[in-house]
Design a protein that fits this description.
By secondary structure, the protein is α/β, with parallel strands linked by helices. It has two domains: 4-45 and 240-260, no CATH class; 49-230, Aldehyde Dehydrogenase, Chain A, domain 2 (3-Layer(aba) Sandwich). Helix content is 32%, strand content 20%. It contains eight helices and 14 strands. The strands form four sheets. The chain has a seven-stranded mixed beta sheet with strand order 5-6-7-4-3-9-10, sandwiched between helices. The protein is globular, with a radius of gyration of 20 Å. The termini are far apart.
């Protein structure tokens, strides 16, 4: 994050490539600015990463804990943080109950203190943005089961929020949040989950929790995202390529494919 005039100056330099990590809005601006140079432009942008819980999971409490960590890790300020959850109706009530109970126990505070599990947001504007998403959802019929309030202390703190009775008419389920808030939506089957998970401008990651890899794989194959997870979420592996689709970016990082983004082949034709 930096000042706009500094970024503008960098874009004017005759560089061999332009590589950016940040928001879709800024990434698109960069791509437009450098297009005439025909230089490589790689963008790692945002996401609205979904997580789907199938009705065959064997330990709902454990899955709820994993999903919660995916939402609040780094206070939700991660491009691959879980931002919306879909749960099949057979385990919906048990999952929501377990998730909300665990969310209420999270310790929010100074990250320098050992007991702290969730810290502050990076800037005041983000706090207001999240509160606005929550207000919009509630006004449209959502229910707050836990958190969602500003914490009165120095810094930009919000209680980790859990909302239910949500739908895709709410900003919380469609706009990138980048904070410790999430909506949990009930679905009847895998087909409905796939449709809702794909109903987004982003395509960074998506997670599926199921006792059966074969069943989960059928869903993962249909998801237009650069990364899919089975029984895990919100993680990056150096040996695997990292890419975004749609508004989540252009190009590739990590793995040998990510290294190739910074090199250009050169051919020699030699006649002795």
């Amino acid at each position: 994050m930096g000042k706009g005039n500094a970024g503008e100056w960098l874009l004017q330099l005759p560089l061999n490539g332009y590589f950016f990590t940040g928001s879709y809005r800024t990434g698109r601006l960069i791509a437009e600015k450098v297009a005439s140079k025909l230089a490589p432009c790689q963008l790692e942008l945002g996401g609205k990463d979904p997580l789907y819980v199938m009705d065959d999971v064997e330990d709902v409490e454990r899955v709820a804990a994993a999903a919660l960590e995916g939402v609040v890790y780094n206070n939700g300020q991660s491009c691959c943080a879980v931002e919306r959850i879909y749960v099949q109706e057979g385990v919906y009530d048990a999952f929501v109950r377990a998730y909300a109970e665990q969310a209420k126990k999270l310790v929010v505070g100074d990250p320098m203190e050992g007991a702290t599990e969730v810290g502050a947001l990076t800037r005041p504007g983000q706090l207001e943005f999240l509160l606005g998403q929550i207000d919009d959802a509630v006004a449209k019929g959502a229910k707050v089961l836990a958190g969602g309030r500003r914490i009165d202390r120095k810094g930009y703190f919000i209680e980790p929020a859990v909302l239910v009775d949500v739908n895709h008419g709410m900003k919380l389920m469609t706009e990138e949040s980048f904070g410790p808030v999430v909506g949990i939506q009930r679905v009847k089957d895998d087909a409905e989950a796939v449709a809702l998970m794909g109903d987004t401008e982003y395509g960074l990651t998506a997670a599926v929790y199921s006792a059966s890899f074969e069943r989960a794989e059928k869903v993962m194959q249909q998801l237009n995202t650069g990364t899919v997870y089975w029984n895990c979420c919100d993680r990056v592996s150096a040996g695997l390529p990292w890419s975004g689709r749609k508004h989540s970016g252009l190009g590739m990082t990590l793995s040998y494919q990510g290294i190739r983004a910074f090199v250009q082949p050169k051919s020699y034709h030699i006649r002795p």
